[in-house]
UniProtKB/TrEMBL annotation, chain A:
The complex is composed of two ATP-binding proteins (UgpC), two transmembrane proteins (UgpA and UgpE) and a solute-binding protein (UgpB). The chain crosses the membrane at residues 12-37, 84-108, 115-136, 148-169, 190-213, 250-269. Pfam families: BPD_transp_1 (PF00528). It comes from Primorskyibacter sedentarius. Part of the ABC transporter complex UgpBAEC involved in sn-glycerol-3-phosphate (G3P) import. Probably responsible for the translocation of the substrate across the membrane. It is a multi-pass membrane protein. Belongs to the binding-protein-dependent transport system permease family. Residues 80-271 form the ABC transmembrane type-1 domain. GO terms for biological process: transmembrane transport. It is found in: Cell inner membrane; Cell membrane. This is sn-glycerol-3-phosphate transport system permease protein UgpE. NCBIfam families: PRK10973.1.
TrEMBL record, chain B:
It is a multi-pass membrane protein. Keywords: Cell inner membrane, Cell membrane, Membrane, Transmembrane, Transmembrane helix, Transport. The complex is composed of two ATP-binding proteins (UgpC), two transmembrane proteins (UgpA and UgpE) and a solute-binding protein (UgpB). This is sn-glycerol-3-phosphate transport system permease protein UgpA. The chain crosses the membrane at residues 12-30, 71-94, 115-140, 160-183, 204-227, 266-287.
Amino acid sequence: MAERNGMVEKRGAGLWLTHLGLIIGVLFIFFPIWLAFVASTVTQQDISQPPMPLMPGDKFLENYARALTSGVNAPVAAMLVNSLIMALGIALGKIVISLLSAFAIVYFRFPLRKLFFWLIFLTLMLPVEVRIVPTYEVIANFKMLNSYQGLILPLVASATATFLFRQFFMTVPDELAEAARVDGAKPMRFFIDILLPMSRTNIAALFVILFIYGWNQYLWPLLITTDPGMNTIVMGIKQMFPSGDDLADWPVIMATSILAMVPPVLVVVGMQRLFVRGLVESEK
Amino acid sequence: MEKRVTFKGIWLPILLVLPQLVITVVFFFYPAGQAIWQSLFIPDPFGLSMQWVGLGNFEYLFSDPYYRASFVTTAVFSILVTVVSMGVALYLAVLADRLIKGSGVYRTLLIWPYAVAPAVAGVLWLFMFNTRVGVVAWYLGLLGYDWNHVLNEGEAMGLVVVASAWGRISYNFLFFLAGLQAIPKSVIEAAAIDGAHFWTRFRTIVFPLLSPTTFFLLVVNIIYAFFETFGVIHTITSGGPQQATTILVYKVFSDGFVGQDLGSSAAQSVVLLFLVSILTVVQFKFIERRVHY
C-alpha cells in the first residue's frame, strides 16, 4: 500500500482500502453461513435445481418446524437437549473438579501431592482421539453407551482448568488465608466464602470456552450414541445424509446446521469479553 | 511456587483431588495403558484369545503403504491448514490494527466462527461444493471447471483444508490482533519518521516483535489440524477418495471401529500418543518463552 508521506495513521484512500480488505474478509467468513441460512428457508426444489437462490425464501418456519419436530432420524429438538446436557455437564463438571483439586494442591501439604499434580498434567497428552478404542471399551463395560454419563465423564478431567485455577489461587494474597485461619475458619469455609467469590470472573471465562468445547464434540458422541434419540446435534447432522444416491433433505439439514451453531455463537458474541479472556488465559 | 500459608489436614485434600483423580485414572490412564498393552497383541479371528506379537503390530504398521501415506497426508494437511488460517488471520489482523476506530466492530464480526463446530463447518463447505447442488461447484462449472471432490484427490484435500482453516481464522485473528496491539506505537512511529514504509516496517519491526505469538500459534494450529479436524474430514470426504484425506486420527477411527482391526488401531494410538507428547512438550517450551517475553 502506497504511503508516500510515511505517516502511521491512515487517511483517505489508504483508510478505504483497509476497510475494503476487512470487509472482504468478513464476507469470506460469512458467505458459507449465509448460504446455509438461505438454504434453510427455501424448498428442496429450489436447491435441487442449481443455482440455488442467494436470498432467503419464505419456508423458514416450515423447515425449522419440520427439523425440530421430526428431523430425519430423530427430532432435532431432542438432539438440542442432548447437546445442552452434554455441554453443560462437561463445562460444569470440569470447573467443579478442577476447582476442588486446585484448592487441594495449592492450600494443603499432603503426601503424594506432587504425584497428583503430574498425573493431572499428563492428561494433556491424552486427548480422546488418541485413546478412542479402549475408552469406548471402558464405557461399554460400565454399560454407559447411549447415556449422558457416557457422553460426559470421559471428557470431564481437565488439566487446563486445574492449571488455570492453580495459577489464580497462587495470586490470592496469603493474608486472606491467614485471617481465615486466625478466625478459626475451616478450610471449606474459606474456599466457599472467600476463594469462590474471588474466582467468579475466571469461572465465567472458563465456562464460555468449555461450553463451546463440549457443544462442538463430534468423534466421541459419534462412537457411543448409536441410538438416534441420544445423538447430539453436531454429530447428528452427518447422520441425516442418505447413504445411497438419494438426494439429501437439504432444507432440513441446513436448518439443523444453523440450529447447531446458534447456542455457541450466542455465547461467544454475548460474552465476548469473557470469551477473549478465557481463551487467552486457558492457553497460558 | 509454593503458598506460605496452608491448611492442616491430609484426608480433606485427598478427598478434594479424588474426583479428578478417579476420572483421570479410569478414563485416561487405564485406556492409554490398554492401548499400549493391546498394541503388543493380535486377537484371533473369533476374538476369543490374544496372541503376543511384541512389536509385530508396529512393524506391520510401518510396512503398510497406506499408513505411511497417511503420515504424508497428515503432514501436508496440517501445514496447509496452519499456513492458510494463519496467513488470512495475520492479514486481517494487520488491517484491523491499522484502524483507529472500528477495529472492535470487525473483531466482533470475525471472532464468532470460532463457535462453529468443525463438523458443522464441514457440512457448510460440503453444501457449497456438493457436485449435485453446490452453488460454488455450479458456478465453477459455468467457468468450464468440472469440480468433483468425490473423485479428485487434490480437490478433496483442498476442500477439507479450506473448511478446517475457515473456522480457525477467528482464533488466530484474536491472538494476532492482541499481539499487534501490544507492540508500542512509539517504535513504529519512530521507524515511520525515519522514512520506513509500511512493508519495510512490517518486515523489520512488526513481524519480529510478533514472533512469540506466531510460534505459539504455529504449535497450537498444528495440534488443531492433527486432532480436532476429524469432524471436517468425516463429514466432507470420509477420508477418501482413495484415502487421500485419511489423516492419522481418521485412520485410528476407520481401522479400529469400521475395520475392527484392534491390534493395528492400538498400535496407531500409541504412535499418536508419542506425537502428542512431543507436541505438548514443544507447546510448553514456547509458552514458557511467551510468558517471559
